[in-house]
Amino acid sequence: MLKDKLAALNIANMKAAQKHSILRMAVSIAIGLGLATVLILFTSNKPSESLKYYFTAPLMNASYFSFWIQKAIPIMFTGTAVCIMFSANQFNLGLEGSFLFGGLTAALTNLYIAPNNPALGIPLSMILGILVGALITFIPALLNRLFNASIMVVSLMMNYVCLNFSMYLLFTYFKNPASSKNTYPWAKDTIMTLKFGRGNNQFTLFLSFFVVLAVVILAWYFLFRTKTGYKLRTVGVNANFAKYVGINIVNVAIIAQIIGGMIGGLGGACEIMSNYTNYSWVELTGFGWDGVTIAIFAKNNPKYVPLAALFLAYLRTGAMVMSFKTNVQNELTLVIEGVVILFLLAEKFLSGTYRKMIVAEAEAKKAKAAKEAK
Amino acid sequence: MDNFLVMKDITKVYDNGCMANDHVNFSARQGEIHAICGENGAGKSTLMKMLFGIEQPDEGTITIKGKTVNLSSPTRAIEEGIGMVHQHFMLVPSLTVAENVVLGIEPTSGLHFDMNKAIEMTEEVCKKYNFNINPRARVMDISVGMKQKVEIVKALVKGCEILILDEPTAVLTPQETAELFQQLRALRESGKTIIFISHKLNEVKELCDRVTVIRKGKTIDTFDTAGVTEADISRAMVGVDILLEVEKEPAQPKENVLVVKDLGVYNEAGKKVVKGVSFSVRSGEIVGIAGVEGNGQRELIDAITGLHVYSEGSIKMLDKEVSSENIKGLRKLGMVHVPEDRMTMGIAPKMSIKENMIADKIDDPRYVGRILNKPKEIKEDTDRWIEEFKVLCENGEEQINSLSGGNIQKVVVAREFTSYNRLLVCDQPTRGIDIGASEFIRQKLVEMRDEGKAVLLISADLGEIMNLSDSLLVMHGGEIVAYITDMEHLTEDELGYYMLGVKRMTPEEIGGALHA
Known about the structure:
The structure holds two protein chains of two kinds. Chain A is mostly helical. Chain A has a domain at about 75-285. Chain A contains 15 helices and two strands. A two-stranded antiparallel sheet of chain A has the order 1-2. In chain A, α2 (about 15-45) runs antiparallel to α14 and α9 packs across α11. The radius of gyration of chain A is 23 Å and the shape is globular. By secondary structure, chain B is of the alpha/beta class. Chain B folds into two domains: about 5-240, P-loop containing nucleotide triphosphate hydrolases (Rossmann fold); about 255-335 and about 420-430 and about 450-515, Rossmann fold, CATH 3.40.50. Chain B has 18 helices and 22 strands. In chain B, α4 packs across α5 (about 145-155) and α14 (about 405-420) packs parallel to α15. The model of chain B has no long low-confidence stretch (mean pLDDT about 90). Classes of the chains: A mainly alpha, B alpha/beta. At the A-B interface, α9, α10 and α15 of A face α10 and α11 of B.
């Protein structure tokens, strides 16, 4: 059994297409990191130190390590959500709204429904966050069903509706009058974390990390092991075919978007309860967009989401530490992300190598067949 | 000139790793009609795509009149004097014939397109090669045979010396085919080299001077057609002798499964394209529908299979009105459908063979539990079907679009035939696939009939439809113009007259298609 698995991993036995996809990913990342190195060398006043922080900071101490995980969690949520929606070919970009409202819902739950009672507040916040998140991605899906409105446009607009509505609620009803934009705190410390040690050696255990791992696993099972997931992928690959075999493509598309929103809302709730003691979001978090990036890296397969999220979070943590330890700008990491994605999405990138690989593979197959014939 | 065109050691590997051409050698003389024969997937189309610059070879050289050419695009190929008439016409329907003909070399006067010059150029070529076309007619108003002539003229206007025709007769009636052949012979007399791709060996024998046979991406041989028989060519194509006709017992039809009554269907443009069609398909018989493409068959089939709404008349599947059922409901009633275009409708290309085979059965409790699928049962059954339907692949996990056309079609047929079925709607079930796979699918169809299924068969392949059908409907202009039950005495010529609308039966005779 294990031997089979190892054989499956053997690069030499891989099909050219798989090999090429790995090669392209590796080269894209190498180019991005190479560019980062060059930029740091040119802009830093302490290049070697900057490079050291950029590439190794998350592994330097427990505090940075915790910081890395903290950054990976929300984009794992949104990445998984986008994987499901994109698998059905539904370009619903309403996750920003779901995430934001998931967070707001969790904050209000802990403030007003279950004050000072995390044992009730945490699960209840998650459930309510899921419901609210689902509602927000469902609205564009519904408008599309009823009026044939473009899902992408409506969902993008929804994000700003959500943001402004949440700000209206915050400033009108929930703000602590003594502060500029914060609610009252619901606890002294974040309620979904356990902290060990002090200072640079403080290690934070995020309970939401386990939640998101469960979400990733369930999402994978849903997509690849249930009939609804199967229908969803079929609709994504060829909607004509799906219709012809009798799948209700409208329902499936709506289900995909609702599930995406549920995960987004849960992510927002977990984010608020892991990192905040009061609510003060007055702009979109950006995690919804990151979800798209992660889904591209993971090729819409939840299995690769943790890897992609950890990779992106690693770079971001490194850049962050570098920026406050040396003079290099934090935004550098955005340049790198952009470059890597550009190369990943450029279909013709390395296509020459690919042609050589498949010609070689075909020749080898022929030679093998000839040998067997003898 | 013996080596007018030489393609030497041409190798082409497609992105999915399929070696379509493996050191193929081909040469043509000036002023000959040279056929290329081979099963589908043998690599004929690939070879011609490289000659016309659509694809580039991975290895090998192409020489024309002793000069090596680099055909990096169709534009380059046209400059080298190569013209191609594709199986699916490349014409702009809303433009006139003359405008289509000069597309790419538009004559101008000042800044304007010079319509008169365009008409003049078209007429000149038509006159020279004796084509009878009206340059002012809009392409959307002319017949299929006429469109093909426009394609040929289009190539001639650009000064082509080598003309490639990809399955030109597939869309033509026997009469139109005869006319095309006459014109091709005239072109040969004027020194053009014609490369003729066809599955139809009798045509090859009748028209061509030489024939090159390609099998599995390799050149097998080039023969003078005078010296070989059709059987010789087909043997070279498949490597073994094959039976060209499926043997079958007379049908024993029973009760009606599908009843179509006074059906009227409008297309998207609001034009009535199916007019007052009535017929029935009984269990245990194969009913064929013949007709030149675009005479309402497409819309008729879409209406029957629930893909297109109909507004007049009724379609009843086992006494249930089709319009009140969704596709899932129709499938539950036992209607299965092999669609005409397998790539856009028949498969989900990026999914595995296994997933494609199970697509319509995913709600079946045999394959899904309360939450999770049952991978073991799915694998067991799909593996069995792969074997039963002789799908050539490594295993069921393989992505379906890495298979050849014939094998993809076998997957489609396997999926449809293994579902619960009472009525099989088979739309062009063997179009564009190799003889072996075609043979297999035809045999299966007859087997299904003998098991008591009702079969509705639509095919542009006259040989196939005359061989398989127990009775035959002919459509022309959206109507049924003939209902033929005496298949033994039906000739291709007679069928052609019905298809062209020259002959039609009396309403009483046609009414016989609807059984009580």
